Amino acid sequence: MHRRLTFLRSSAALVGGWLLLLVAFGLYSATSHRQVLEQDVSESGRSLQRAISQRVAQHDAHLTSLSALGLAQAQPSQDFDLVARSILRFYPRIVAIDLIRLSPGEGASVVSSATSADGSTVDPLAVARAVEGLASGKAAYGPDGKPGHYRLMKRMNDTLAVSLDIDGAKLVEGEESPRWASLTLSTGQGLLLGMPARQLAASSLFARTVRFDAPIASATQPLRLSVGRQVTLPQLLPPLPFALFAAISLSGLALVRSLLRHRQDAALAREAAEAASRREALRQHETKLAHALRINSMGEMASGIAHELTQPLTALLSQSQAGRRIAAASGLQDTPIDSVLAANVLQAKRAADILVRLRAYVGKSALEAGVHDLGRHVADIVALSRIDLDRRGIVLDVELPETPALARIDPVEIEQVIHNLIRNAADAVEQADRVDGRVLVSLRPGSEENFEIVVADNGTGIPADILPRLFEPFFSSKPDGMGLGLSLCESIVERFDGSIVAENGVAGGAVFTVRLPAARTAERREEAAE
């Protein structure tokens, strides 16, 4: 080692090695910083692209709603005007909405018009020409007389068309664009929005522009987004880190021989690093232990609650059964009071079954499953949930097969799973504040080997960062959630050799799919296990 480091006695060799280190560090720093800046521009561009794509999709939805409203009314201009003004108020980028009457051979005229302060006067003949070759229900894009605006037009039928005047500059809202970004939004006819960077980079001879360029996802509005960032040499090679590295590397090369004489210090440093690693491993172990203790505490608490609830449920069941006997003895059999008591008996037994299964789950003991018709139990839990959803103004639809769907399950536990999924779907729809809230529960054959229970809604959907952790215990996206509902659902389904997956629907909302093996498949698996 001593002979290998002899060259450090030469000042020229020492400077040469130092310069090589500086060049290597400069290349690495410039490359890594450029990659970070390019990724930052790409992520910001894609975020803006998604936001603008959602907004232009809303334009198509407004056209469809206005067209349906116009076709459904005998005098479309009355209700059309009210809805149009509401759209202008809540969507300021839409600055004018016009209902045009098409009169072949006689020109075109405006039936109804709602315009904000930034809107422009529509040319009915231009709208008529734009939709002339379109079939009913098809939309067309066209320029507007006002700079930065464009029009989206739809042919309703042979005599009516609807037109939206859209301010392209308002497709990007507030502080959505980063301060460093220069942003342009354009069409084939020209520029809609040109936004310079609010935070200008220092001038440099080596300045380059990193750019993100992509079309907006829309079949009717051919927009293109471009996001650029000026990258300068100080950004690729920050002076302070470079100077620090230069000083440190020079000092390091000059002190190599001294460092070799301090091996003991290096050994102590290694021991400190190992000790830190051990402390980190101990911390992770303590975290896992605390998590296990929480689960154990939850199990003990659930077992205690189940035990405490058994007594009042037993009393409720006994009193209701006694009441039915008294009613029968008094000639009140099959009367409303007898029906109410019968319902109490049924629900008390159901609650008792749930507590039995809860205690079995906590105690890790499995209950005997049997072959049951999934369709009947899906129908029962839908009927039970419909009352709550009707009260919340949410439509609950169900699709069941005509033939029995036989599977080896515990019916009470499977009903718990479906009820939990329906309740979560209703919460998502309610959070979205939709007037057309809807939850669909369907049972269908997934293949010859299994059945699928699908619960879909048109609510808010599942954010991408939450989706991977959806079935994780104690993880919840709800402010008051405990994070146990979906985890319990997954445990129940997997106990019957099934699976549960979640995804976002193509048209929005969330879709949960429970797959359970058919009774014949489950029996073959049991025979193979034996």
Descriptors for this entry?
530 residues; alpha+beta; Helix Hairpins; five-stranded mixed β-sheet; flat
The CATH topology assignment of the largest domain is Beta-Lactamase
Fraction of residues in β-strands: 15-25%
**Class of the largest domain, according to the CATH hierarchy?**
Alpha Beta
Lateral strand order in the biggest sheet: 2-1-5-4-3
- Poorly predicted segments: none
| Largest β-sheet summary | 5 strands, antiparallel
Cα distance, first to last residue? Answer: 67 Å
Mean pLDDT value = 81
Q: What is the helix content?
A: 40-55%
Anisotropy-based shape? flat
Give the count of helical stretches.
Answer: 12
Global Rg:
34 Å
The tally of structural domains comes to: 3
CATH-scheme architecture of the largest domain: 2-Layer Sandwich
Instruction: Give the SSE order as H and E letters.
Output: HHEEHEEEEEEEHHHHHEHEEHEEHEEH
By secondary-structure content and strand pairing, the structural class works out as alpha+beta
How many strand elements?
A: 16
Enzyme class: transferase
Protein name: histidine kinase
GO molecular function: phosphorelay sensor kinase activity
Pfam family, one: HATPase_c
Plain-language structure description:
Helix 1 runs antiparallel to helix 5 (239-254). The chain is 50% helix and 21% strand. With 530 residues, the protein is of the alpha+beta class. The strands form 4 sheets. It has a 5-stranded antiparallel beta sheet with strand order 2-1-5-4-3. Strands 11-13-14-16-15 form a 5-stranded mixed beta sheet. It starts with 10 loop residues before the first helix and ends with a helix. Strand 15 (499-504) and strand 16 form a beta hairpin.
